[in-house]
Amino acid sequence: MDRKKAVEVVNVAKSFGTFQALKGVSFDIYDNEFFTMLGPSGCGKTTLLRMIAGFESPTSGTIRLHGKDILSLPPHKRRVNTVFQSYALFPHMTLEQNISFGLENLGWEKERRRARTAQMLEMVHMSQFARRRPAQLSGGQRQRIALARALAPEPEVLLLDEPLSALDLKLRQAMRDELRALQRATGITFVFVTHDQEEALDMSDRICVLGHGEIQHLGTPNEIYEDPENRFVADFIGETNFFEVDVLAVNGPQATIRTPMGQTLTTFHKGAQVGSKATLSLRPEKIGMEDQADGPAQSGELMEGRITGRNYMGGYTHYTVDVAGVELRVSRRNAVSHSASFDPGRTVRLGFRHDSARVLAR
Amino acid sequence: MTDVKRYPFARSFTALFFLYLYLPIGVVIFFSFNENRLVSVWTGFSLKWYDSALANRALMDAVKISLTVASIATVLATSVALMAALVIVRGRDVKFRRLSETVVNLPLLLPEIVLAVAVLILFSQLGLQNGMAKLIIAHTAFCIPFAFLPIRARLQGMEPDFEEAAQDLYATPWTTFRRVTFPLIAPGVFAGAMLAFVISMDDFITSNMLNSGGSTTLPVYIFGLIKQGTTPELNAISTLIVLGSLILATTALILTFRSEKRA
Amino acid sequence: MKPTDFRIWGLAPAWVIMALTLVVPIGIVILVSFASRGAYGGFDWGFSPASYAQILFEEDWDGNLAFTPQYLSIIGRTLWLAGLTTAICAALALPAAYTIAQAGGRAKAVLIYLVTLPFWVSMIVRVYAWIIILGNDGVLEKTLRSLGLVTDIDSLLFTNGAMLTGLVYSYIPLMILPVFASIEKLDPALIEASHDLYGSRFTTARRVILPLAMPGLMAGAILVFVPCLGAVLEPILLGGGKAMLMGNLIQTQFGGGRNWPFGAAIAVVLMVLVMIFLMVNALRARPEVPHD
């Protein structure tokens, strides 16, 4: 590829005593991309971030920044900057002083510092607060200043440690758009850590899903959602229905399987083997319920079942439907105001396209 | 609505308690203004005992010595305590961290008389004669834990995030300490210094043990006066000490809160 | 500046000072306790358990050793008074600390300031105050007489009671602060929960407040008991030198008594008593909640 590599993580492992937090992971982060590390708590994503920043060292392995090995460098010598989860704005300095702190340490002259600080404040729309102190700001404002402070020194890579977790929902959504726009505008590589999958899917160019100390899947948001690498990823991202199925045949990227409900279908697979069991993953929104405007194509699979549960969520209604003893979760868009709702106990017809399902190794 | 957290008589008890704390001191102050020589029979108001106290050469010398020893010991003890606290609380992979903490707090674990005896014997074996030097060394030693505790508390209460952020923004360890750590722990350092100063000024046991010709501290001097008999002049001196302590304590409190607000 | 360097020389001054002024000297004290009494004061190096023997025995004219209870009674009195002082301080501190903790922000800070203020006043002044109060024709006697309660009483001074009063007064601030710190951390919801579950005020105090204040009480106990064991001022000024405690017993050996080895021996006994107390305390203490 002709894309330059901003960060190379090579076989990095980390143990805390006898506990192996990371088991030799390797991946590359390219210039100019919004790269997210996603996973449940304790999966090692924050540890990896801190290792790039220099606050922790790997037990083994190497990390390179634009080709240079940085493990031997202390944090204050690495040209990366961090937006901390708690923001860590210096309480005894004004916003201006916070932002110019890194520039002073880099030895920039006064005029250049002043210009850059003003530019950063303008970028996050906080110029009029320059002389204030962090304690006088709201959570969202502090977040923006933390961002400005980390971007001011023109780092090669910007590291963000769950920066949106302390914000309320509306603010978080607004900040997501701002962050993505910022990354596009500045062109700096963003390495983002979060446990919130919606954030990851929304903002990232590529996502690295971590679990059990390993990389479970590295790909674009679309790939990760629609073609998950394994059961862990399918389960962690979004919601899905899992069935244990028998693999009847494998033909290149496709496999033919039989479901516990008795159907036989052929669709894309990852790691299925003939004669053994596998998992079928089918997302709730891929299952059509009768009367829907865009119902299942006629070539899809049709089933009949009885509604056993219903959860009204505003824009969507989630149903649980019993189909031949198997419980399916179905998600139905409320496209019309006061949509007719299906009551529990009612019999409905369900359908889905074969190629909406995925076969995954057990 | 009953407040289940309130206990009957607790408030009156506490009021009596404060009375108990301040009555003795009040008595001393009261009788310092007494006109006659007795310390317990009031005849009239007079300031004459204050005059004689302030004219007392020996008393002034003792005050000077106490202030000198306390000032030097405070500076030394606080510096040592600060360095030790930085390593013990923030140091990475420090060997013997807990042992070091015990060592720093050693003077607190033993009664002062034992430590006084120990330094007395030590100095006599070393042949150290200089009274001031002996006092300063001994005072520094037992003031260190008092300076250490508030500094350590402040450091522990401070998130390591700030120091990491400073390093992330290219600050060297020294710059990090100078521009981030120290300003943020300043109230603790100040509290430690104040505590060390007071402990040194008030010390009796060790200062008495080490007492020789030119190194009589204020408490030791007062002790000598008490042995000779109670006089209102003693009351006057005591009241001046109470006044001094009050000013010191209040100043420390105000400055602590002011620097906390700025932080 | 390499991090390794600072870790070493950052701790070095503390270690050096403590080693030179405490660790080494204490070792010397132990050695001296086994030395022989010098002819003109001071001591001669050597190994002799004479000083320790002196605690228990005395040589009479015939050279026989007779058991002397005097020093044992001093040790006993010291332990007894220190223990009593600690108990009284705890009993006083608990309700006071609790009430202060109930107060609102500003008042609480002021009250704590007022509680610690006497601590800033030199101990010698505070002990002197009790001399004035308890002395013959002192303030207390005069007040009681003018109230018509007594006609004449022997001096209250120079008794165990006087010493006890002085000790409690001197060390109560050291008990209040840790107890207050413990009680302040107590979640008020716990008290409400106790009442919600049918506990009375007394039950709540006994089964919720007291156990949760225990860490503070333990810390306060150490801060009070240890210095009390080595108290010097109170026995001299309030005990009159007749009812001696270990503190002024040691003191006199290095002053007029001029028996350094004996003084060192008593100091060693004192150290051992403190160490036993600290060890018992450490064993009893519940393991701390691990910090991240």
TrEMBL record, chain A:
Query: Which reaction(s) does its UniProt entry say it catalyses?
Result: ATP + H2O + polyamine-[polyamine-binding protein]Side 1 = ADP + phosphate + polyamineSide 2 + [polyamine-binding protein]Side 1
Instruction: Look up the EC number in the record and give it.
Output: 7.6.2.11
In terms of InterPro entries, this protein maps to: AAA+_ATPase, ABC_SmlMolc_Importer, ABC_transporter-like_ATP-bd, ABC_transporter-like_CS, Mo/tungstate-bd_C_term_dom, P-loop_NTPase, PotA-like, Transp-assoc_OB_typ2
Does Magnesium count among this protein's keywords?
Answer: no
What domain of life?
Bacteria
Known SMART domains for this protein? AAA
Domain ABC transporter residues, every copy: 7-237
- EC top class, in one word? translocase
Q: Name one GO molecular function term.
A: ATP binding
Subunit-level organization: The complex is composed of two ATP-binding proteins (PotA), two transmembrane proteins (PotB and PotC) and a solute-binding protein (PotD).
The molecule here is called Spermidine/putrescine import ATP-binding protein PotA
Gene name tied to this protein? potA
UniProtKB/TrEMBL annotation, chain B:
Per UniProt, the keywords (alphabetical) are: Cell inner membrane, Cell membrane, Membrane, Transmembrane, Transmembrane helix, Transport
- This protein's record includes keyword Hydrolase: no
**Which regions form coiled coils?**
none
Could you give a single Gene Ontology term from the biological process aspect? transmembrane transport
Instruction: Say if the entry is tagged with keyword Cell inner membrane.
Output: yes
Name listed for the protein in its UniProt record: Spermidine/putrescine transport system permease protein PotC
| Reported function | Required for the activity of the bacterial periplasmic transport system of putrescine and spermidine.
User: What family name appears in the similarity comment?
Assistant: Belongs to the binding-protein-dependent transport system permease family. CysTW subfamily.
Where, per UniProt, does this protein localize? Cell inner membrane; Cell membrane
Q: List residues of the ABC transmembrane type-1 domain.
A: 63-252
Q: Gene3D superfamilies, per this entry?
A: MetI-like (1.10.3720.10)
Q: What is its main location?
A: membrane
Which parts of the chain span the membrane according to its record? 12-33, 65-91, 103-126, 180-201, 236-257
Organism of provenance? Gemmobacter aquatilis
Q: How does it sit in the membrane?
A: Multi-pass membrane protein
> An example Gene Ontology cellular component term from the record?
plasma membrane
Q: Which SUPFAM superfamilies match?
A: MetI-like
InterPro entries on file: Bact_Polyamine_Transport (IPR051789), MetI-like (IPR000515), MetI-like_sf (IPR035906)
Protein origin, superkingdom: Bacteria
UniProtKB/TrEMBL annotation, chain C:
Where would you find the membrane-spanning parts of this chain? 12-35, 79-98, 110-135, 155-180, 216-240, 260-283
**InterPro entries assigned:** MetI-like (IPR000515), MetI-like_sf (IPR035906)
The family annotation for this protein states:
Belongs to the binding-protein-dependent transport system permease family. CysTW subfamily.
Keyword Cytoplasm among UniProt keywords: no
Q: Which residues form a coiled coil?
A: none
For this protein, the record's SUPFAM superfamilies field holds: MetI-like
- Where would I find the ABC transmembrane type-1 domain in this sequence? 75-281
**Transmembrane recorded as keyword:** yes
Q: Which PANTHER family match?
A: INNER MEMBRANE ABC TRANSPORTER PERMEASE PROTEIN YDCU-RELATED, INNER MEMBRANE ABC TRANSPORTER PERMEASE PROTEIN YDCU-RELATED-RELATED
Q: What name does the UniProt record give this protein?
A: Spermidine/putrescine transport system permease protein
The GO cellular component terms are:
plasma membrane
Q: Where in the cell is it found?
A: Cell membrane
One of the Pfam families matching this protein, by short name = BPD_transp_1
Which PROSITE patterns does the entry mention? Answer: ABC_TM1
Gene Ontology annotations of biological process type: transmembrane transport
Give the keywords, sorted.
Answer: Cell membrane, Membrane, Transmembrane, Transmembrane helix, Transport
Membrane topology per the entry is: Multi-pass membrane protein
